[in-house]
Amino acid sequence: MMEMNKQLVVGLVQMTSSSRIEDNLERAEAIIEQLVEQGAEVIVLPESFALMEKYNGQKLEHLEQHGNGLIQSWMSSIARKQKVLLVGGTIAIQSDIESRPYARCYIYDEQGIELTHYDKIHMFDVSVKEGESYSESANTLAGERPVVFEWNNIKFGCSVCYDLRFPELYRYYQTHNVDVILAPSAFTLATGKVHWKLLLQARAVENLAFVVAPNQTGTHDNQRKTYGHSMTVDPWGAIVGELAEQQGGLLCNLDLSKIETIKEKFPVHQHRKLMS
Hints:
It is built from 5 helices and 17 strands. Strands 1, 2, 3, 4, 5, 6 and 17 form a 7-stranded mixed beta sheet that branches. Strands 9-10-11-12-15-16 form a 6-stranded mixed beta sheet, covered by helices on one side.
């Protein structure tokens, strides 16, 4: 078995994405360039980075086919130009049901080649508070499979936003010895205040993995408010880095040797009694 790289420099992009794709891509590229200049090897964009709908159905006007489209071309080009692993938040990709595309997270390597993709599994169908409710399943088709991929001898597990509330997904990643859990998000302001940090730390601690979670922030064109506070959490639950509410980039150096060190001293996964 090849030795895993011990250090990984990750850049998280925090945005207030609008309903104008070109503006969003321009802003994202500027933040990415800054992070790469600072040494980022991996860039992770938030959920819905390229388009935050102003009205229901707007994303259907910008729907892309798998392997073909403006946003996919942009992601591939950025990964190749900046020579980074790019985790592309989510974009709307045509499914077999025209009105319900997938919320798909693409991963591109340094050559701009797609390594894999993950379709968001859990749909955000909730009432956050009076006057603020969501029905994501009405216009998005849920994915069905967890996705693990390897890059530079580092194992990553994919998830998106509302997935964070379903620990069985992350236990799957733990059983596959994932080192880094990816969680691009558009977590709401109301739920973010009470649950964002809590959920990220829980997923990191219970699975002894790093969690990398860029988030949307601020007030969007549809008046939806997101929480910001993009952060990375280490396997002991310590926050490696965190932004506040501003748009911008967060650079985090992950010491991956911590994972094995903790597992040796604290072999919690060997103590499990109840298996699904």
